[in-house]
């Protein structure tokens, strides 16, 4: 029996997760019963009509928390739109937690750490993960430096699939005009910027290690979805960030100082290099229009067939600033043109930090974002010239 007036709703987006959905539901159920025994809760599986039996696996899982299965369209954002509508239809619902169906490292504490700040008055709670430095590279080299350097918000995981939202945050996301790519992987950055631009109360919470089905950096169009949505929203909200901003850091809940481990990540260096150089050749005209003759000349040498492909931190930030300033180019074109350069930056970071400690690599990612803020004067100057 589903509660007529749930206080907490946990949404699990899935596509072909029959092998994981049952275990995930059991852990979430344990977390709800342990940390929120006085709250009425509901676990909702929003599933894109998986052919592998995800629906059956979820509904057959024996847990105490009531559950509901909802079939949704393909596309992560399209599915979450249905979840948001369902959440808002439950007038009693105070907090919505979302966890991707492919995550295998969820613990009962994740439920507490994500939901508790929402019940205490925050609107958008982001996770802090111990992720491998070669996993989440779109976050590390695109979203994080732009969030911190351009928008002045120090959120370490702005593209997280594991978040919690207040009713206010869900209402704002659901009722805004969605970027075209927000129906796919662009949803995470759209959700983040919805709260940032709305100046909602944001927080972060430690979750520990994240293990999930890892794909190599963006072989499936994820980068273009994120970058297109990001450029579109930056263009539309330029007045928010085109002047001086101080860096704001949301409060962090449930800090954990225990020794942690990191999941293994396998990278096919040669294949990514091939994609980088082929993509540069295909998009060289648009890249030149965006970065200008001088910067293009430097990049062109790096992407020659037998050249050493290396894009350092400062050069990468200059590339990002040029793309942000190019408001005369459509966001989807900018995303396509940036993709091979992103591959080049990722490979350069990979070479620099291949044999170092994870903490040292994390420091490198953080320093890149800090430098983006230090150099934002260069960005503002470019905007004025354009």
Please give the structural blueprint.
Layout: E1 8-14, H1 21-35, E2 41-47, H2 54-59, E3 67-71, H3 76-89, E4 95-98, H4 108-119, E5 124-130, H5 137-149, E6 163-166, H6 167-174, H7 187-197, E7 202-209, H8 222-236, H9 238-241, E8 252-253, H10 269-291, H11 293-302, H12 313-325, H13 331-352, H14 358-374, H15 376-385
Parallel strand pairs: 1-2, 1-4, 2-3, 5-7, 7-8
Antiparallel strand pairs: 4-6, 5-6
Description:
The protein is built from 15 helices and 8 strands. It has helices at 21-35, 54-59, 76-89, 108-119, 137-149, 167-174, 187-197, 222-236, 238-241, 269-291, 293-302, 313-325, 331-352, 358-374, 376-385; strands at residues 8-14, 41-47, 67-71, 95-98, 124-130, 163-166, 202-209, 252-253. An 8-stranded mixed sheet has the order 3-2-1-4-6-5-7-8, with helices on both faces. The mean pLDDT is 92.
Supply database-style keywords.
alpha/beta; 15 helices; 8 strands; globular
Task: Please outline what is shown here.
Helices cover 50% and strands 11% of the residues.
| Broad structural category | alpha/beta
Approximate strand percentage? 5-15%
* Quaternary structure type: single chain
Number of helices: 15
> For the largest beta sheet, what order do the strands appear in spatially?
3-2-1-4-6-5-7-8
Shape annotation: globular
Task: Count the beta strands.
Answer: 8
Give the helices and strands as they follow along the chain: EHEHEHEHEHEHHEHHEHHHHHH
End-to-end distance: 60 Å
Over the alpha carbons, how many angstroms does the gyration radius reach?
A: 21 Å
Which residues sit in consecutive blocks of at least 5 with pLDDT less than 50?
none
Average pLDDT score: 92
Main sheet characteristics: 8 strands, mixed
**What percentage of residues falls in helices of 4 or more residues?**
40-55%
